[in-house]
Amino acid sequence: MNKTLQVRELETEFHTPRGVVRALHGVSFEVQDNEIVGIVGESGSGKSTVVRSITKLLMPPGKVSAGNVNFAGRNLLDLTEREMRQIRGKEIGFIAQNPFSALNPVTRIEKQFANIAKAHGVKVDASERSRALQLLESTGVRDPERVMRGYAHELSGGMAQRVVIAMALYLNPQLVIADEPTTALDLTVQRQVLDTLRRLTVESGRSMLIVTHDLGVVASYCNRVLVMYRGNIVEQGLVEDVFVRPRHPYTISLLNSVVRPEDETQFVPGDAEAPDTAEPEAPNPSTVQLSEARRS
After folding, report:
1. Which UniProt keywords are given for this protein, alphabetically ordered (predicted)?
2. pLDDT at 65
3. How far apart are CA 196 and CA 186, in angstroms?
4. pTM metric for this prediction
5. Structural domains in the chain?
């Protein structure tokens, strides 16, 4: 099977007044064609730093100090910002954590689709508009024509995320990177959005890299999983292998932290003080009169 993305010995540093902080320590992994890979770990483990390093969206004082990111026969780390702008959106789609931060609040959705096309040299005509409408409909947008004419603030969180997904897939990228794509959504909408994202990924034959802290998302939607801890990938493999037979202590702890309905309730030892059930004292009349006199 061909490799869509191959990351080797990726190291990222943050230069601070107190010195250099290494955020990624020789991270290596790959994403095969038609594969969905999940990166899981707690906050601060380096998940988002990985995807921002790969796409060269890392903001100062962050800096990639070593490694290779092979995509479509090119090392992305060797490309200029101008060359990367042509890859982002067209060959690599990106779905941000907060859909409203990814949408322009003062530009109609239709215009934002047109801007994506223009940025990559695609002629904006009736056929392209029709394709955008079809894509919005396929992501579960009920009235795509109305949404196209509207603004971001008129959308619910779930609807805004569907629009962002449609924009990420608009130019048919080979790889989609989703950074915590459903964090701001309620559980029901999360499931609907992820179902849609997986369906569109599988139907088109593209690959996807999902960043999440939710083990349930990985179990339900991913083929393989990378477990991150303190800037390192401590374990990786097929989801069923890692979840059933975890080897690293951190992976075991992560899996044990998941609440299961069948688990026996654990109680904290000790005695709790009884709540104070005494009736509250009536206010002193003289105090009330004094307060009223001060207000007047």
Report:
1. ATP-binding, Cell inner membrane, Cell membrane, Membrane, Nucleotide-binding, Translocase, Transport
2. 95
3. 15
4. 0.83
5. 3-258 (3.40.50.300)
